């Protein structure tokens, strides 16, 4: 057969998208964070099962769902579950809700959560974020330096709480 009439990409990898990169950081998760990941995985499996198998229109959505499933399975397999209830209540660690005061005495709560749960706009930060790194190991009354793009901000830790 003439080469012009064959597809070089035919084969098992033709419908597979490259994997999404996994974070280089340890995948610390709270029990709620693990439940979130498991829920997302179930939702992706459901989405995949709803897509037609033999439709060209579903080829890309199927490949995307399969890629997302591989990603979520990797996150779950690498998960290191940390129960906030088991942390030392006197020290900021993973799973803490930390109240800090800035130089204007404005108080803000920050929750140190897993990377998949992080949402800085909702004051949920990963432990390896600049603020997370500044807070880890601190105690009530400690001053920490939060290095931001606009400069360094000094914060005082005023409360540490852990929720289960």
Automatic annotation (TrEMBL):
<dbReference type="Pfam" id="PF01272">
    <property type="entry name" value="GreA_GreB"/>
</dbReference>
<dbReference type="GO" id="GO:0006354">
    <property type="term" value="P:DNA-templated transcription elongation"/>
</dbReference>
<dbReference type="GO" id="GO:0070063">
    <property type="term" value="F:RNA polymerase binding"/>
</dbReference>
<dbReference type="InterPro" id="IPR036953">
    <property type="entry name" value="GreA/GreB_C_sf"/>
</dbReference>
<feature type="region of interest" description="Disordered">
    <location>
        <begin position="1"/>
        <end position="31"/>
    </location>
</feature>
<keyword id="KW-0648">Protein biosynthesis</keyword>
<dbReference type="GO" id="GO:0003746">
    <property type="term" value="F:translation elongation factor activity"/>
</dbReference>
<dbReference type="GO" id="GO:0032784">
    <property type="term" value="P:regulation of DNA-templated transcription elongation"/>
</dbReference>
<protein>
    <submittedName>
        <fullName>Transcription elongation factor, GreA/GreB family</fullName>
    </submittedName>
</protein>
<dbReference type="InterPro" id="IPR023459">
    <property type="entry name" value="Tscrpt_elong_fac_GreA/B_fam"/>
</dbReference>
<feature type="compositionally biased region" description="Basic and acidic residues">
    <location>
        <begin position="1"/>
        <end position="19"/>
    </location>
</feature>
<keyword id="KW-0251">Elongation factor</keyword>
<dbReference type="GO" id="GO:0003677">
    <property type="term" value="F:DNA binding"/>
</dbReference>
<dbReference type="InterPro" id="IPR001437">
    <property type="entry name" value="Tscrpt_elong_fac_GreA/B_C"/>
</dbReference>
<feature type="domain" description="Transcription elongation factor GreA/GreB C-terminal">
    <location>
        <begin position="89"/>
        <end position="162"/>
    </location>
</feature>
